[in-house]
Design brief:
The structure is a single chain. With 295 residues, the protein is mostly helical. 74% of the residues lie in helices and 0% in strands. It has helices at residues 2-17, 21-32, 45-67, 71-90, 96-108, 112-127, 134-156, 162-181, 183-187, 196-202, 206-210, 216-239, 249-267, 281-294. The model is unreliable at 1-9 (pLDDT under 50).
Length: 295
């Protein structure tokens, strides 16, 4: 079965290249080119190692769904990952990412159910290519992004539980930004994350999106989505207590970068059906430094 092959292949790759589990995670993060990792360099070594392992885990389970053409194989593979998560908390995981997570979950007291919820979110992509309304989309955003925010908040450290509300809302804001940026890319995978009732409200059909038909109605729909994402950023910032602002600086750096992506989409005229907005590594670093000094 491909599931077992996937785990063993990663372990064998580590052995052949003489990589430690931490090095495997660093390599996974580096190859992703994600904005998410730009803030890691500002963390202390133990927190950087923890965030690298967490992000590598998210990438691995996300890749299962994105890169596997057979839904049944993808589902079986995700179940294999659930077994690996169980092994992190009471066994011996075989995948280098899960091996790297063993000391992380112990040091930062990360809950097993959160790691499993991320897999549940990825599995939704196999079952649900459309969302009737924003409420149903919220569950998806919670599982694939807010849960990552909550785990990150544990790693960064906090003293006030309101910080968890900040982490939850910031996760939603990040995922909404991803959805806005990736409308065209997702459509090419036959997925539409824009709520269907809102598409109907603005007079945009699924066929318009799947055929990359950019209309004035589509631009108005995207302006509506951008405004909601901005509200979630503001909500998140309003929840963050001053006492935890310094500890959560890495999240604020990510927010600066993700908000820049949102601004770029808006300034480019929302041409997301045929183009994918991305920021240069130099610009992301400049934004990260600016946010670090500001916070």
């Amino acid at each position: 079965i491909e599931t077992v092959g996937l785990g063993h292949h990663a372990g064998e790759e580590c052995a052949v290249l003489n990589m430690t589990p931490d090095q495997y995670c660093e390599d996974k993060c580096r190859s992703s080119g994600s904005s998410f990792t730009s803030s890691f360099r500002f963390l202390t070594p133990d927190r950087r190692r923890a965030m690298t392992a967490l992000y590598a885990y998210c990438r691995e389970v996300d890749d299962v769904v994105d890169e596997c053409s057979d839904a049944n194989v993808a589902r079986t593979t995700l179940n294999w990952w659930r077994g690996e998560v169980a092994a992190i908390f009471g066994g011996k995981p075989t995948h280098p990412v899960c091996q790297a997570l063993v000391p992380v979950v112990q040091q930062f007291n990360l809950p097993q159910e959160h790691l499993l919820e991320i897999i549940d979110g990825m599995e939704m992509d196999l079952d649900q290519p459309r969302y009737a309304d924003f409420k149903s989309l919220q569950l998806y955003c919670y599982r694939v992004a807010s849960v990552v925010g909550l785990l990150s908040a544990e790693i960064f450290g906090y003293t006030d539980r309101n910080t968890l509300k900040y982490a939850h809302d910031l996760g939603i804001a990040f995922q909404l930004t991803n959805i806005i940026r990736d409308v065209g890319e997702d459509a090419r995978r036959k997925r539409i994350y824009l709520p269907m009732d809102e598409m109907q409200q603005f007079g945009v059909t699924a066929a318009d999106i799947l055929n990359a038909k950019e209309t004035e109605a589509f631009r108005k729909l995207m302006a509506f989505q951008i405004a909601r994402a901005r509200r979630y950023y503001q909500q998140a910032f309003d929840h963050l207590p001053a006492a935890d602002r310094k500890a959560q600086r890495a999240g604020l750096i990510m927010a600066e970068i993700y908000q820049a992506v949102l601004n770029e989409v808006e300034h480019s005229g929302c041409h997301v059906l045929n183009e994918r907005v991305s920021l240069t590594p130099t610009y992301k670093l400049w934004l990260a430094i600016k946010a670090w000094l500001k916070n």
